[in-house]
Amino acid sequence: MKLTGLRQIARLRGVLRWRYVAPRAAIVVAVVLVVRFGLDPLLRWAIVTTGQAALGAKVELGELRTSLKGGELVVTNLAAANPQKPLRNLIEADEFRFQFDVKQLFRKRLVIRDGGISGLSFDSPRTTSGALPDAPTDQASPSPLEPVVAVAEEKALAWFDDLAGRMQHDLLGSLATPRLVDELETRWPQQYDALKARAEGLRHKSKQIEAAFREAKKNPLRNLAQIDQLRKELAAAEAELRTAVAEIQALPSQAKADRLAVDAARKQDEQFLREQLKFGNVDAEELNRYLLGEAAHGYLTQTAYWIEQAQKFIPKKKIAPPARARGTNVLFMARKQPACLIERVRLDGHARFDGQPLAFTGELTDAASEPELHDRPLRLRLAGSGALDATIVAILDRRGDIPHDWVRIDVPKLMLSDRTLGNASKLAVTVSPGEASLQADVRVDGESISGVISLRQSSKLAAATPMLRDDRIAQVLHESLAGVDRLEATVHLSGALKRPSVRIESNVGPQLAGGVKGAVAKYLADRQERLLAKVQDKAVQQLAKLEAKRREAEKELLAKLGQDQKLISQIAALLQGQLPVTTGGLPQVSMPPVSVPQLGKLIPKDKLTR
């Protein structure tokens, strides 16, 4: 028996060729040991390295376990940092549990038939920074809506600032009528003082001539030269008297010219007020962009950001050339398949939407490393529950030359808190808390975007204009939105993905624009009428006082000039009656006497009254 066993061993040694089998058996054992003990660290390193290269931020995970026998891969406590916010996680999950096809591993393919991701959350906080050392700073690009919102805000606030400036501008200081009446009131006392001084000067001069004549007539022959000089002075006084009378005769004509000038100033003021109080109409579409652009800016910024992050994990259409290997390549007609394929993964997690907690479940299907080799596009579906009943469906298709992405969001019931649309310090609309619905349908085809985002909210609206100090304007604007019990907004997107064309439709803009237009137009018209009435009343009162002063001054001046006329006539009579006619033929003063009643008749008093 013992001899037989030895013979069998000797026979096996000759058959197995141990020098050939032993090294290969050692290699197999080594491979098994590497797979058993080295596969997990290798996969861990691959996940972290690949994730950090794609994100540009830290990727951390807790435990990784694989089971080739059961075809199971488990990853716990995975966290991928946000490169733009190092203290926030882009995505975080408690556990990844995948069932993969072991047979496909031997064909150099990873096919996950089924699996689940639980505890999934977005934008969660981190205790340490997720920035990679020496990583380039990821500068946040400006939002596509920033220029649109900025232009709309500039136009709306420029219109509002112009309106506020017109409300606060002191128009009375710029009107011509008050200025002209003030000039008349200043000019008349000066004219009156000048006429009064001339009348008093004539009386003083006449008395001097009279006194000198009485002194000269005591010796007429000796004082002929002096008497001749007195005659000339008397003629000059007579001429000055007639000039003063002519000026008084011109007073009614001057009063009429002043009234015409005041009337012309009034017409000028009317035109001035029409120009100054005229304001440009605010465009309803501009108001929509101004009031709702900030909200649309936030939604679009987040959408663009998440699309950009998702695109980092989705391969472009690119078929790699086959790797060169030893031997001869034998090509079969079988269809090529992607190296990595996730057929179906269930999702379970939580998030926050508009500050409210959102629990969701979902499913991810047909995620392939080479999408062009798979017959279906990647599809993601999330369904919210709890505070929000929301549905999100995303289809990312990279099978053709141009990538096509489609996202649809449907939130039939959403409770929104109170908020302010626009600039709260100038022109804004406050929206009370209310129930809302949100729908979004957005497509991205290559570098083009198209879609519609709609928001409907049942809430009360109120206009706020703290810079307008006139309560009547604020009241009318408030009344213009008093009957509005809902907020409707629709955002239309089109054009280039990085700089889309945005059109915002809403019931707020037209309603507020109509209210503003009607309120401001009525206010400015009333203000124009009030200003003109105030100016006219003041002008009439001032002119009436001026006319009364002129009439009183006319009587006073006529009395003074009448006395001067009488005195000059008496002196002329003395000169004519007392002076002898000399051989030299001295000129005689010939002045017809003018009585005070006659002087008064020279001035038509009816022309001095209005």
Task: Give me the secondary-structure topology.
Elements: H1 2-16, H2 18-55, E1 59-60, E2 64-67, E3 72-81, E4 88-100, H3 102-105, E5 110-125, H4 146-168, H5 176-216, H6 224-276, H7 284-313, E6 340-353, E7 356-368, E8 378-385, E9 391-397, E10 404-416, E11 419-422, E12 428-431, E13 434-445, E14 448-457, E15 461-464, H8 471-480, E16 487-495, E17 500-506, H9 508-578, H10 596-601
Parallel strand pairs: 5-6
Antiparallel strand pairs: 1-3, 2-3, 3-4, 4-5, 6-7, 7-8, 8-9, 9-10, 10-13, 11-12, 12-15, 13-14, 14-16, 16-17
Helix pairs in contact: 4-7, 5-6, 5-9, 6-9, 7-9, 8-9
Provide a brief overview of the structure:
With 610 residues, this protein is of the alpha+beta class.
Structure description:
- Among the domains are: 2-45, no CATH class; 172-276 and 529-608, no CATH class.
- 24% of the residues are buried.
- It is an alpha+beta fold.
- Strands 1, 2, 3, 4, 5, 6, 7, 8, 9, 10, 13, 14, 16 and 17 form a 14-stranded mixed beta sheet that branches.
- It has helices spanning 2-16, 18-55, 102-105, 146-168, 176-216, 224-276, 284-313, 471-480, 508-578, 596-601; strands spanning 59-60, 64-67, 72-81, 88-100, 110-125, 340-353, 356-368, 378-385, 391-397, 404-416, 419-422, 428-431, 434-445, 448-457, 461-464, 487-495, 500-506.
- Mean pLDDT is 71; it is low at 578-610.
Number of helices: 10
Contiguous low-pLDDT stretches (5 residues minimum) are 578-610
β-strand percent reads: 15-25%
Number of strands: 17
SS content category: alpha+beta
How much helix is in the residues? 40-55%
State the separation between the terminal residues, measured CA to CA: 159 Å
How large is the radius of gyration? 52 Å
Question: In sequence order, what are the helices and strands, one letter per element?
Answer: HHEEEEHEHHHHEEEEEEEEEEHEEHH
Largest sheet: 14 strands, mixed
Overall geometry comes to rod-shaped
Mean of pLDDT: 71
